[in-house]
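During the no-cost extension, the postdoctoral fellow (Dr. R.K.) reprocessed legacy sequence entries with the updated structure-token encoder. One reprocessed record is reproduced below for audit purposes.
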Amino acid sequence: MKFMLLMNTPRGTGDYQINQWTPQAFNAHIQFMKDLNRDLVKSGEFVEAQGLAPPGQARVVRYGGGGAPIVSDGPFAETKEFLAGFWIIQVEKRERIYEIAARASSAPGPDGKPLVIPIEVREVMGAPAPSEG
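Re-encoded structure tokens follow.
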């Protein structure tokens, strides 16, 4: 089974404040993520992982009726959390993805304590097999 883990972080009073952490706290957080990814590669469960740019750089795009696409700022002001990054993970059992998500949730914050980041777990749907005919 393949799953996407979505790391949502609190928006607070602006963009995610990781860029205001001390260098030591930032480096510890990034090292935690590198260690997690390394362990998932070793176990054969890692497919993909990426961090995302802050919400101020996000755009919402809609079809423009045959002309240029309609591009607006995003996400919307009422958003309390935003997507900071994701993993694509391949596991044999659903329980394992929950273990991995819990570990990701425990990434250290600016004070070194676990952030308890909400991690959304979504199964990746496979396309139906092409029909023979």
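The chain is about 25% helix and 30% strand. The chain has a mean pLDDT of 86. The remaining legacy entries will be reprocessed before the final report is submitted.
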